[in-house]
């Protein structure tokens, strides 16, 4: 299919050009909107890890997301033109797929923006991403509807089949992927650069995975689709990162976190590689599991869990803490605390307050956990340390996907 390949080059080439322009425009518009956010609209957050109180325009993610949407919208007629040129039957299903993806990502952005404006409750953050991913599940259904999972080869002889069909469970799983992705980035947040940094590393890893798969596989539509959704995301994110990295001139807000998460979930689901996507999100999966006791309020969860800036002392970030009265703590919470301590994953200290016994633990986020191992760090160092781990995990994910998978599966 040489003809097909030329078409692919045209599609990706046009997308690259659009992406580069989008990156420049994002930077330009952010600079233009900084004074509007600050003085005209009073949209700003307080940078909590700095010695003096500073108002930082927030949510600047909406500018990057806006430019992203414009470039994807302009990309539709480009694709349309290239499709018509080939002279073969018009690929309605592919157009539907693109439109469903745009719908999900757009509602993700909207949810994030509303969260920035109104501070939503947890139940909204769970229900709305689920609804947002419904269009994706429908399209997934018409695009082949493969709900089977390949079993590891040693397992196959036991069970007697090589695939197991998960049926409706698979759709529930994909809905969960949508909810997970939307929230996963947002709960590793609060220090300059870390939200966009995650988006960039995971996005670039998935894009690289797509490029590898385009070369390896014959049917490359799913992966070129994902690549074309990701490239303008990467360029606009990069522009945003340059302004959000320490010392931050803008904050990205929940708008960015939900947009990035929803986009990654969308390409993972529609591109049929949601399990590989989760491999690239190992720090996020870990952080989510580690956070569960606080997310489900087994132990108290303060409004902000970001590390604590030591303004009077060494100007570094320290672990932030949650305190609770031991006698009023459930036995489930005590069990989880014991397990975490057993693995060395928790700072724990008991103390006396008003005649009763209290305990303090570090807030259960991966950022605080890093600080537990390294000791206090400067803000930019903690960001580098976390992104270093994220990149290392991506490296391991590639190793898993392309090397260890051969040991387990006949792929
Ligand atoms: C999530 C986290 C919360 C964390 C917060 C930080 C959970 C369940 N929620 O809440 O623990 O404290 O993100 O973003 O894990 N900020 C900075 N420096 C930065 C970025 C943000 O100081 O580099 C502060 C600013 O005050 C900013 C605020 O964080 O206004 C944004 O917090 P928001 O996104 O509203 O918090 P959540 O997403 O609800
Ligand atoms: Mg947030």
The total count of helices amounts to: 15
How many angstroms separate the termini?
A: 23 Å
What would you report as the Rg, rounded to the nearest angstrom? 23 Å
- SS content category: mainly alpha
List the helices and strands and how they pair.
Elements: H1 2-40, E1 44-46, E2 55-57, H2 61-86, H3 92-118, H4 122-132, H5 134-142, E3 148-150, H6 153-159, E4 163-165, H7 168-184, H8 194-216, H9 221-244, H10 253-270, H11 274-280, H12 282-295, E5 308-309, E6 317-318, E7 321-325, H13 331-342, E8 348-353, E9 356-362, H14 366-374, H15 379-408
Antiparallel strand pairs: 1-2, 3-4, 5-6, 7-9, 8-9
Bound molecules: uridine-diphosphate-N-acetylglucosamine (UD1) and magnesium ion.
Magnesium ion binds at residues 186, 189, 254, 257.
Question: Can you put this structure into words, describing what you see?
Answer:
- With 411 residues, the chain is mainly alpha-helical.
- 66% of the residues lie in helices and 8% in strands.
- It has 15 helices and 9 strands.
- It has helices spanning 2-40, 61-86, 92-118, 122-132, 134-142, 153-159, 168-184, 194-216, 221-244, 253-270, 274-280, 282-295, 331-342, 366-374, 379-408; strands spanning 44-46, 55-57, 148-150, 163-165, 308-309, 317-318, 321-325, 348-353, 356-362.
- The strands form 4 sheets. Strands 7-9-8 form a 3-stranded antiparallel sheet.
- Helix 8 (194-216) runs parallel beside helix 10 (253-270).
- The longest helix is centred in the first third of the chain and has 39 residues, at 2-40.
- 39% of the residues are buried.
- The model has no long low-confidence stretch (mean pLDDT 94).
- The protein binds uridine-diphosphate-N-acetylglucosamine and magnesium ion.
- Uridine-diphosphate-N-acetylglucosamine is lined by residues 45-49, 58, 186-187, 189-192, 248, 251, 254, 304-306.
- Uridine-diphosphate-N-acetylglucosamine binds at residues 45-49, 58, 186-187, 189-192, 248, 251, 254, 304-306.
